[in-house]
């Protein structure tokens, strides 16, 4: 059913945001249904290599098609940027889609992956005049956990409001991260960060799905998270989840309104600030790590 959204100034109204979150939830469930159907016959999947350690299968592609079908039917005036098919920003806002975050886990039978969908408002719509995610859905079909967030209203897990942890410092924190696995150009920046974090926290976890790392930070399972070289669809929804749960989720280099270039530091406010201070000395500001595009840029 096509949804008629208000004019630009009203995109942030409660009604418009409610309609958008309902649309994103429906799309996420449609994509996840395909992923779960294929998960029982992974040996039949045709797997392509986009680049080193960058895999895609027909499960990714068909899930993305199902998601886009729902979004186009119900929000035809919005742009779409998706991992597998690309796209461009259009209209009042743009959907930023990862149909399968954690592809390597999925293909190896590790039940830790998710569908991630965010609606990113364009500069002339956002209340602060900057592009930012305004609606977020991260759906973990294995645990049947649905994380949702709406700008200025809050974040929820299966309908219950969530908040970031209360850990006051890094030495009382468990952090999530992601190792360089596809682009190793920022390895020299990342490895000293990992060394320092290992020696100043209760532990580091790397479980291979950025959207879930951020969702778990939003609900307090992790106290903080950092990673480099991601794509905008990896972090768009998770950024809003953390922010609406009372935390910080920012571009590591401090150049973007959100980490659309793929370099992110997140956590409760105390931990995120301490984590930013930990990573800052190791950043090469002349050559920042960058992911493959942004949800405000046209992709092939």
TrEMBL record:
<feature type="binding site">
    <location>
        <position position="234"/>
    </location>
    <ligand>
        <name>Mg(2+)</name>
    </ligand>
</feature>
<dbReference type="GO" id="GO:0006020">
    <property type="term" value="P:inositol metabolic process"/>
</dbReference>
<keyword id="KW-0460">Magnesium</keyword>
<keyword id="KW-0378">Hydrolase</keyword>
<protein>
    <recommendedName>
        <fullName>Inositol-1-monophosphatase</fullName>
        <ecNumber>3.1.3.25</ecNumber>
    </recommendedName>
</protein>
<dbReference type="InterPro" id="IPR020583">
    <property type="entry name" value="Inositol_monoP_metal-BS"/>
</dbReference>
<dbReference type="InterPro" id="IPR022337">
    <property type="entry name" value="Inositol_monophosphatase_SuhB"/>
</dbReference>
<dbReference type="GO" id="GO:0046854">
    <property type="term" value="P:phosphatidylinositol phosphate biosynthetic process"/>
</dbReference>
<dbReference type="GO" id="GO:0046872">
    <property type="term" value="F:metal ion binding"/>
</dbReference>
<dbReference type="GO" id="GO:0008934">
    <property type="term" value="F:inositol monophosphate 1-phosphatase activity"/>
</dbReference>
<keyword id="KW-0479">Metal-binding</keyword>
<dbReference type="Pfam" id="PF00459">
    <property type="entry name" value="Inositol_P"/>
</dbReference>
<feature type="binding site">
    <location>
        <position position="83"/>
    </location>
    <ligand>
        <name>Mg(2+)</name>
    </ligand>
</feature>
<feature type="binding site">
    <location>
        <position position="98"/>
    </location>
    <ligand>
        <name>Mg(2+)</name>
    </ligand>
</feature>
<comment type="similarity">
    <text>Belongs to the inositol monophosphatase superfamily.</text>
</comment>
<dbReference type="GO" id="GO:0007165">
    <property type="term" value="P:signal transduction"/>
</dbReference>
<dbReference type="InterPro" id="IPR020550">
    <property type="entry name" value="Inositol_monophosphatase_CS"/>
</dbReference>
<dbReference type="InterPro" id="IPR033942">
    <property type="entry name" value="IMPase"/>
</dbReference>
<feature type="binding site">
    <location>
        <position position="100"/>
    </location>
    <ligand>
        <name>Mg(2+)</name>
    </ligand>
</feature>
<dbReference type="InterPro" id="IPR000760">
    <property type="entry name" value="Inositol_monophosphatase-like"/>
</dbReference>
<feature type="binding site">
    <location>
        <position position="101"/>
    </location>
    <ligand>
        <name>Mg(2+)</name>
    </ligand>
</feature>
